[in-house]
Amino acid sequence: MIIMPLGVGSATPTADRHLASVAMWREGRVFLFDCGENCQMRMLQAGMKRSKIDYIFITHLDGDHFFGLPGLITTMQLQRREKVLHIVAPEGIQKFLDATLEAVNLELCFEIVYHEIPLGTEHMVVVEEADFIVEVRKLEHSTYCVGYRFQEVGKPGKVNAELATEMGITEDQHFKDLKNGVDVTLEDGSVVKAADIVGQPITGNVFTYITDTRFCENAVKLAERATILYHESTFGQNLKDKAEETGHSTATEAAIVAKTANAERLVIGHFSARYTNPFVLLKEAKMVFEDTWIATELRPIMTDPEQERGIFQPVQPQRESFPREQRGGFQQRRPYPNNRGGFQQRRPYGDSPQRSSNNDRGFDRPQRPYNNDRGFDRPQRPFNNDRGFDRPQPRPFNNDRGFDRPQPRPFNNDRGFDRPQRPYNNDRPRPEGDRNYDRPQPRPVPRPAPRPFQSDRRDPQGPDNRPPRRDYRDAPQENRPITPRNPFDEFDRF
Q: What is this structure's pTM?
């Protein structure tokens, strides 16, 4: 028995969670519990064949638990399914699917057998076959919801053939009777007891699927001694009031159900979208029930790993790959920086030799040394010479014009090398604080005379009888008159 979670989200899907759906594989048959949106695509990615589905069990008629049915059934129609499909769900599922198929004018090529559960049913055995039975119990939710218990029929123990032969058992019918627990009487009148020949009976596995419910007694009954209990954990214990209001369970309540029912393993799922990290709920459940697992989409949960390992391998989407000659002349820019702090661009493909481990341009080109990127047959250069072996050493640091040229001019001569130095003009006195002794002083700039004040704008040539303006440039700062700061200032402000 392999349990494959296809969707572990609740109510609304997220970027990394799909809606509620769990597939169970058993002896080549697939049993689907709930069918949220995109369920068929998740089965394809899990490596499970949709044609192997025999039964679909729906817990309740909330959209996030059964809206994937129309798409799944349409795909089965396109694949020309011939086998009968059984759908077990609360009353109303047949009306929904008939209306959907009629709306799209789809006539199925296979038969659907509906096992509708009457609303309000407390307990019911919905499927009973030779090797397993499925029973349902009512749960506590805002709408009518049921939980499922899939139980394998126990098998008798193995017959000790050597011991049976020593005791005189030779006929095949006697072996069958012993395996079925019936004592056998031989011709000489001796009785061979089945308990002495047959070992302990093999108990069948039990898978319980409980979702969308408050903590209730029926949940404990469904999970009684379950091999794997899949229980919803929509909220954490800090949102217990929210869980009670919406008809859901917390991670702690799911662990209490598993511990009370003596389940072997608890798997929590159906997480609210508000929990980006569901391991918070896992930690909360482990505080009550240690053997708790978290449901991870497309990660199988096996009851017999030695026999079931490797049956399903999740299929990952393939990237598009093209030959290198179809990608263009130049490769894309590499995301590693060069010496200038930018990004290096790959060179065009050609016959150039390949570099060492940091070169991904091909495997058939000869390797070149790490410090020689111009060819394989050239000699190694010295570390301080990047122009070749036969070239002279680089110029001195203070000469950047060539080897045969004279040294650069002195600092105080910027007009030529052969010109004489200009004499320093030290005719006028040097002001205090002037420390530029080696350079000539700038020439004095004559200051223009102030224009006379024109009082009559209409007659610029008219007489000006006002006294001359006083020059305040040499006056102390406190004796200077107040002048406008800019043309827009008014004299009244001062």
A: 0.62
Catalytic residue, chosen from 34, 62, 64, 212, is: 64
Task: Please name the residue ranges forming H helices in 104-197.
Answer: 161-166, 172-179, 194-197
Q: Which run of H or of E encompasses 289?
A: none
The answer to whether the CB of 44 falls within 8 A of the CB of 76 is no
Backbone angles phi, psi at 43, to 5 degrees: -65, -40
Distances (CA, A) of 359 to 100, 336, 378, 379: 58, 12, 20, 21
CA distances from 197 to 167, 184, 318, 487 (A): 10, 11, 55, 121
* C-alpha dihedral sign at 174, 175, 179, 180: negative
Higher pLDDT: 140 or 321? It is 140
What is the CB neighbour count within 10 angstroms for residue 16? 9
418 is catalytic: no
Residue predicted with more confidence, 469 or 132: 132
- Judge contact between 402 and 391, C-beta under 8 A: no
Q: What is the dihedral of CA 460, 457, 483, 450, to 10 degrees?
A: -10
* Strand (E) or helix (H) holding 253: helix 251-260
> Token pair of 429, please?
């006195």
